[in-house]
Specification:
Keywords: DNA damage, DNA repair, DNA-binding, Glycosidase, Hydrolase, Lyase, Multifunctional enzyme. By secondary structure, this protein is an alpha+beta fold. The chain is built from seven helices and ten strands. The chain has a four-stranded antiparallel sheet, with helices on one face. The chain has a four-stranded antiparallel sheet with strand order 2-3-4-8, sandwiched between helices.
């Protein structure tokens, strides 16, 4: 699933492609991805100029010169692309915005879980979807205020998009590893220093992922993500990625927290006392 770093990468791609461009045609190849009626979208989009792009959590927004916004949510397999000629359309293109430049912006989604909709504004969409502040924008004080009185374990809270928007499963595991906090710690047991460390870890993980355009194999060897073996390990030819980068003799543990696969270091992240 595209997480915040992937969606920020998509937003930057679209920013270069579509800002300042007028939409000359709204082409629908598969209406399954539309959360707003096709005719409504066509009337709203054709003739409008895209003035800016924004992102909130895992949602990307194209701002239109009439004040409306086109919302892109990428579901499990969504992506974006660009092409000029139909023969060059990316496979699984579901919707294409024809632009005044002659290029087309493609919404690509093999599994068709993504959605495209029209909204009155970013703020109205955020309110309707009950999304918290973006994970890149939330302050340490806001994070502590939202969590410090909660008796729930940390991992599900960090995944809750109403608390902060944009943290997915692997990101939360990485954040907690970098902060050296066990995912089953109860939020109200964290100290002010630990909340500060948690906030710094969120920023570290997200900025690192964005800087590497979410190409996991390029992440530092000090990151836990390599234990997931999603692509080429940072330690090719060895099994070192199965062990903690800080404690090379300690194997990474895989368990389930709140029904989600969870990776931890038993040394860095001791299990909280009952």
């Amino acid at each position: 699933m595209p997480e915040l770093p992937e969606v920020e990468t998509y937003r930057r791609f679209l920013d270069d492609l579509v800002v300042g461009q007028t939409i000359t045609e709204f082409e629908v190849k598969d209406a399954h991805v539309l959360a707003t009626d096709e005719d409504t979208l066509r009337r709203a989009l054709v003739g409008c100029t895209i003035t800016a792009t924004r992102r909130l959590g895992k949602n990307c927004f194209l701002l239109l010169d009439d004040g409306h916004v086109l919302v892109l949510h990428f579901g499990m397999t969504g992506d974006v692309g660009a092409y000029r000629d139909e023969a060059d359309a990316p496979r699984f293109t579901r919707v294409a915005l024809h632009l005044s430049s002659g290029l087309r912006a493609a919404f690509v989604d093999p599994r068709k879980f993504g959605r495209i909709r029209l909204a009155d504004s970013v703020e109205s969409y955020q309110l309707a979807k009950k999304l918290g502040p973006d994970a890149l924008d939330i302050t340490a004080a806001q994070l502590q205020e939202k969590l410090s009185r909660r008796k729930t374990i940390l991992k599900p809270l960090l995944l809750d998009q109403a608390i902060t928007a944009g943290l997915g499963n692997w990101i939360v595991d990485e954040v907690l590893f970098q902060a050296q906090i066990h995912p089953e710690r109860r939020a109200n047991t964290l100290t002010e220093t630990e909340f500060s460390g948690l906030h710094k870890a969120i920023q570290l993980v997200l900025h690192t992922a964005i800087d590497h355009e979410a190409t996991y194999r390029h992440f530092p060897a000090s990151f836990l993500i390599h234990a997931r073996e999603w692509d080429d390990s940072a330690t090719p030819g060895t099994d070192q990625h199965h062990y903690c980068p800080r404690h090379p003799q300690t194997a990474i543990d895989k368990a389930y927290v709140g029904g989600r696969a969870t990776y931890t270091c038993p040394t860095c992240q001791p299990v909280p006392a009952a």
